[in-house]
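Before relying on records like the one below, remember that each one covers exactly one chain. Contacts with other chains, cofactors or solvent are not represented anywhere in the record.
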Amino acid sequence: MRNRHTWYSRLGILISIVVVGTTTACGAGSQSPQKSAQSSCDVDAPKAPATVNVLAYSAPGIDPFSDAMVGCSGVENLTVRHSPVDFNGQLTKAPLSLSGNSPSYDIAEVYTSTLLQYAAKGWLQPLDDLISKYGTRYGLDDISPSLLKQFTYNGHVYGLPNQVNVHEMVYRKDIFDKLGLKAPTTFDELVAAAQKIQDAQLVRYPLTMPISAGTYASSDFYSSVASLGGTLTKEGTDEPLLNSPTAETALNSLTRLVPFMSPSAINSDEAAVATALQTGQSAIGLTYSGDMGQLLDSKNTEFADKFAFAPPPAVEKGGSPWGTFFVDGFALAKNSKVDETVLFQIAAVGSGADAAKAAGSLAYPARSSVLNDSTLSKLPATAYWPAVTATIDSGVAGPQQQPYFDDLKTAIRPAIADGIFGKKSVSDALADAQAAATSFLQKR
């Protein structure tokens, strides 16, 4: 693993963050500037009682960051509440709260695409001045400016990153060694490896990935398009490109994989993928890095010491790795009635190094000090971290930067799913996707 992780510089042009902050800090429940910043929650006590509600979905790699913010309830005059929801619940509740006059939530968990979407609608509080004022106090220079770039819209930073999430490939090294296989670097090699495992009758359905028709199909399609160097819309315009040769190759790339997946793949999500790998029902997984740590826990699976990790294969030789790169973190609701300084300080604690260390192997941290921590980085449970670094170094794509990107994927998802799972021919599915995208973009 590289010492300063040069992948940071590959994510785009660095933004300049001027960090001018005070070195004093108030400890939990105290207004004394002499308190150490090592206190459990370094947040200044509000002058009047304040209740802060946090919206963040519950997952092993997210909960430690949410828990760190809830811990700030020990500060005088401050109560922080977090009622866990599932991921779809977060996506449903966030727009309702952020767009209303009486918000239910003051701090929201976001990732690259939703942050851009919410910031474009004017729902989030810009953080530039707060970063300048409190950057030193909360060690924000430990977060690469290029990660903050992912949380930037129209030149303003709207969130504090806490982790990186990117697609990874996990495979059973024992099975690969037995059959003389190497980690696939292209989809041709991936298909060949899956076929060899299936022919040897070692695993009936060798491959698993989150590809459900209702949630993941269009995201996986975008990952194939991006691996081929393409986009869903023509650069600089809102013209959809779903009827292009690149789109056809991308959709075909996924249809090739379906025969090696369980018949239930049409409903497959991240939890189903983890279960298939943990129980030995699959030997190769293409899934998010946030799911990898649980595979290395011997309490979860007898195969914990048999998993190996690598960047996902490219759809075609010479392309970038299949997958999409995301940054997760916390943003402040602009419609919150709580003082923005209080909210920022709580979010900074929830994005801090202590929270990242508490997440341990379950998250690939946004803070370089944690990524380079000699204790964490050498744990067997973080064995997937080097593969994440290599994937980002290899130029894996992030989501398109249009605020409507997630909604566009939703609009084309039914048509793309029909193509992936054979309900329609690839050409008919793409024609339907092009029509759906055109209608969506015209109405937007």
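The first strand starts at residue 50 and ends at 55.
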